Fold these 2 entries.
Entry 1:
Amino acid sequence: MRPLNRQCTVSSQSVKVFAPATVANVGCGFDVLGFALHEPGDEVVMRLNNSGKTTISRITGDGGKLPTDPIKNTAGVVVDAFLAHLGQRPGVDIEVHKKMPLGSGLGSSAASSAAAIFAINELMGRPLSRAQLLPFATEGERAACGSAHADNVAPSLLGGFVLVRSYDPLDVVPIPIPKDLVATVIHPHIEIRTEDARSILKKSILLRDAITQWGNIGGLLTGLILNDYGLIGRSLQDVIIEPVRSLLIPEFDTIKRVALECGALGCSISGSGPSIFALSNALPTAGRIADAMKYALRQVGIDSDVYISPINEQGPKVLG
Amino acid sequence: MRPLNRQCTVSSQSVKVFAPATVANVGCGFDVLGFALHEPGDEVVMRLNNSGKTTISRITGDGGKLPTDPIKNTAGVVVDAFLAHLGQRPGVDIEVHKKMPLGSGLGSSAASSAAAIFAINELMGRPLSRAQLLPFATEGERAACGSAHADNVAPSLLGGFVLVRSYDPLDVVPIPIPKDLVATVIHPHIEIRTEDARSILKKSILLRDAITQWGNIGGLLTGLILNDYGLIGRSLQDVIIEPVRSLLIPEFDTIKRVALECGALGCSISGSGPSIFALSNALPTAGRIADAMKYALRQVGIDSDVYISPINEQGPKVLG
C-alpha cells in the first residue's frame, strides 16, 4: 500500500482498547469463515510520546512467551505498518494485556492485532475505516503465524460473522445472522501449536469430500442469512479438517456428542484447536452445553475455561 | 422408499408437460448448484391405458439416440419407480419430445425425468409434492448417467436456483435470487460425452484450491440472497473444474472474455459442457452477450444456439 503522507489530527495522547477473541473455520469453512465473541479478548493500552519510535513497555498474561521487540510482536508490526502508510512517525508505547489464552484456537494474536490497529487509528484521529485497517491487521497475523490469515482478524476487527471470500485480493463479506445465535466455547487446558495443527493436514483432498464441504458451506451461509436454524444445524459438518485435527484433542468425540445431546445446532474445532465451539439458538441451551462439555473434560482430568457468548457484532471498543 | 399402497384419484387420462433445461455447477458450485431456464426444455405426453405396463410409443428430436425400452429410458424409469411406490399398476404410454439438444450440458435427461415424474403425478391426482417427487427424478438421472446427480433435476423439477446441500440424505435448498438475474446460454454444435467430461477430472484436488472454491461458493450464495451483484460477479470463479473441462470446448477463453467485456457478471461451463452460460443483471446486457458469444463461435466456423432467459421459478408446467 502506498504511503498516504496525510497530516492526521492526533485525537488524544492515550487509549485503551479491547478486541475480541474469535472462532475461525466454523466447521465447514476452513480458512474462510469466522465470528467474534464478547469474551474473552485482549486489551491494548497505547500512548503517543516524542520518542519517534515504537516500544512495547509491558506484556501481561502471556507467561513471558511473547516478544517485546516491536518488530517481532504483532502489535508493534501493525502499528509500524500503519504509521508508514500514513507517512508519519510519532513515538508510540504499547502495553499488551493478554486476557485470553495463547495457542487456544481463539485467535489470540488476531485479537492483539485488531486491538493495536484499532488503537493507533483512534490515536491518530481515525484516518482509516475499519475495512481499510484490515490489511494492516492481517500483516500482524503474518508476523505472528507466518501467513496472513484473515479468518480470525477480520471478525475481531469488524465484529460479527464474516466470510473471507478471497485472499488475493482480500475480500471480506459480513454475513447477516439470526439474532438468537449463541456460541459456547470450551478451552481445554492443553496446548496445540498452530504449526502442528497445520502440518497434520494433507495438501490434497478428495474431490468428493470437497463437494460435500462446499455443499455444507453453502448451506451454512444460506441458513445464517435466512434464519433457518435447521439448515444451519444440518450444514455444520466438516468432513475434511475436523476428522484429522480432532485426533489432537483428547475426548473431542465425547465433547461433541454431549453438546449435540444438549441441543447444539453443531459443534466443531475452533480455529486450529484445542478450543471447541458449539452453536445454539438460545442462552439456556448454550449454558447446558457449557456444563456438559466442562463435565466431560473434568471426567478425564482436564481443566477448562468455558465462554458463552452471542455473536459480537461490535468488534473492538475503547475502554474507560 | 416404501410403497404407499394408496388409492389415488386418477385426475385425467392424458397430460402434456414441459420441463425446463437447467444450468448445473454454476461456476464454483460443482455438483451442488443449478438453476432452471425458461427455454429450451422437453415435452412429455403421457396417457393412461389398460395395458398394465409402461410403454414409450414415440420419441422425437433425439436423432434416434434414446432407448424406447422403458426400463432403459429415464422417463420410463421414473414412472415405474413412482407407480411401484404408490402400489398401483395402471398402463402408461409415454411420448418424449426432445425440444433441446442431447449431450449439451443443459440437463437433457434431467428435463425428461422432471417432465415424466411431474406428468405421472398429475395423472394420478397429485399424491406427492414436488419435493417428494425429487428422489424418483434423481433415479431417472441414475438410469441416464450412471449416478443420481441432482444439480440438474432438482432445479428442473422445483424451478428456481437450488443448492444441493447433501446427497446422503438428499437435501435440496431453494435459494432466493435477485429478480433481474438473467442467463445467456450458448450451445456450440459440438458434442462432449458426460462420461468424458467426468473422466477428465482428477479424483484429488489441492486443499488450497478447495479453500478458494468454498470462499467463492459462499460469496455467490451470499450475493444471490442479498441481491449483491458485485459479490455475485466476484464469486463466479471456478478454479477447479473449469480449467480442466474448458480444454474440451473450442474457443472457451474467447467466449468467456467477450461475455465479460459485454457486462456479464460471470461466465463458465454449463454442466459438463459444451454449453456455456453467462449471468447478467439486465435483458439488454444478456442480449449483447448472446450476440458476442455467437459471433465469436461463428468466426471459427462453429454454429450454435443461444438462449436468453431469466431464472425460471416455476419449473415444469402442464401445456395445452
Entry 2:
Amino acid sequence: MANERSKERTKKSRQGPTLLFDLDGTLIDSVYQHILAWREALEQVGMLFSNAAIHRRIGMSGDLIVRSFVRDSGRKLNPKEIEYLKKLHADAYKKREGEIRLLPGAHDLLSVLSRESIPTAIGTSSKREDAQAPLDMLGVSRGITVVTADEVANAKPAPDLFLTCAERLGVDIKDCMVVGDSTWDILAAQRARTLGVGLLSGGFSEDELLRAGAYRVYRDPADLITHLDELGVQPAE
Amino acid sequence: MANERSKERTKKSRQGPTLLFDLDGTLIDSVYQHILAWREALEQVGMLFSNAAIHRRIGMSGDLIVRSFVRDSGRKLNPKEIEYLKKLHADAYKKREGEIRLLPGAHDLLSVLSRESIPTAIGTSSKREDAQAPLDMLGVSRGITVVTADEVANAKPAPDLFLTCAERLGVDIKDCMVVGDSTWDILAAQRARTLGVGLLSGGFSEDELLRAGAYRVYRDPADLITHLDELGVQPAE
C-alpha cells in the first residue's frame, strides 16, 4: 500500500506544476486603464494621488485599495462614501474598456497549457461580473477554473483565491505555482506557501517582484511560453 | 589673486547645487497618458506592445523611442511612416490632455526654489510646442529656463538638454543635480557627469532608478521638498 502510494506520488510529480494565474496585468493588459480610472474616481471625491502612487496598489482587493487611499489621504469615508468611490472607479473603468487588449502571448499560453493537459486556473481580485469581459476576450470562459473576489472571504494579497483554485482543481497548493504581475500576487503565493512567478506586463519592476518573493520573472505571457521548461512544465516539441 | 579665487569658490559652493528638472513624470503627471497614446498609435500601424513595455521607454527622445519600437517589432518603417507614427502619438496624446495634472508638490517645489533663489531649469525631451501647456499649468513659463528637444542635437538619454540648461544658467554642470523620474534622465545625468536624483512619480521603481545611477530617490516633488537638505539645498525654516 505504502509502496503503491509512493509510486503514485512519483508519477504525479512528473506532471509538473499546476499553474494558477492572475488576470489583470498577467493575461489582460488592463492595469493602466485601472490606474487612470482610479485617478479619475479619487479626484471626484477630492483625493489627489499621482498615477504612479495608484499603480503600485493595483492588484490588491477593492476593500484594501480603498483603505490605503483613505489612510494616505488622511480623509475619513463612511461605508456609503466607500461604496460610492468604488462605483466611480467601476464607471471610469467601463469608459476605458474599449482600450483593453490581451497581453502578448496570453491566448497562446492558455492554448499550450490546455493542449498539454497542464491543469490551469485563474484567481482574480475582480468580481465575477467584471471578470466576464476579459475572460471572453481570452476565449476561455467555460474551459477554465476561475475564482473571483466574490467567492472568497479575502482577495489578494490574502491567499484565499489561489487556495480555492487549487481546491477546485483537486491539487495540492504545494504542487502549484502562482503567475502574477503584482507584488500582491506574489505575496498571496507566499502566504499560500507556493512558488510565485512574476510577469513584468503590469508595470511592476523585476526587482519589486523578486523582493516580494518571485521565484522567476518573465516579460509577459509570450516570454513565459518560451520558458515553461524553467518551471518544470514541458510542452511538446 | 589665487587666494581671492579660492575665497570665491568657497563662497560659491555654499549656495548648494543648481537643480535641473525633467518635466513629464517629474513635475507633470503625464507619463500614463503618454503610454496609452503610444499604444493607440502603435496599434494603428499594426505594432503590438503592452503598456508596460511602452512604459519603460517613456522619457527618451522621440527618435529613439520610435527606433526601439521598430527594432522590437521586427518591422521596417520608412522616414515618412516614422513621421506618421509620431503624429499618431501626438494626436492620441492631445485627446488625453484634459486628464493631465500637476504632480503633488510640483508647484510648491518650484516656488520654494524660487523664493530661496536656488537656480533652477527644466530640460525636456518634448518639443517646445508640446511643453508649453504643462509649463503653463506649472505657472512658470516665463520665470524659468527651459530647454526643449528642438533646441539640442540629441534629447535624452544624451546629456545635451541638461548641459544646455547649465550653460544658459551660467553654472558649471558639476555644480548641478538632475531630478527625473526615468532611467533616461539618470543616464543623461551620468553622461553629463553630474548627480541624478530619482522620483518615483513616473512609475519607474526605486531599484531601476538606483541601478541607473540615481544618488537618491524620492516619492514625488512633495517628498523632495521635505528632503531638499539631503541634496545640500537649504530652504528657509
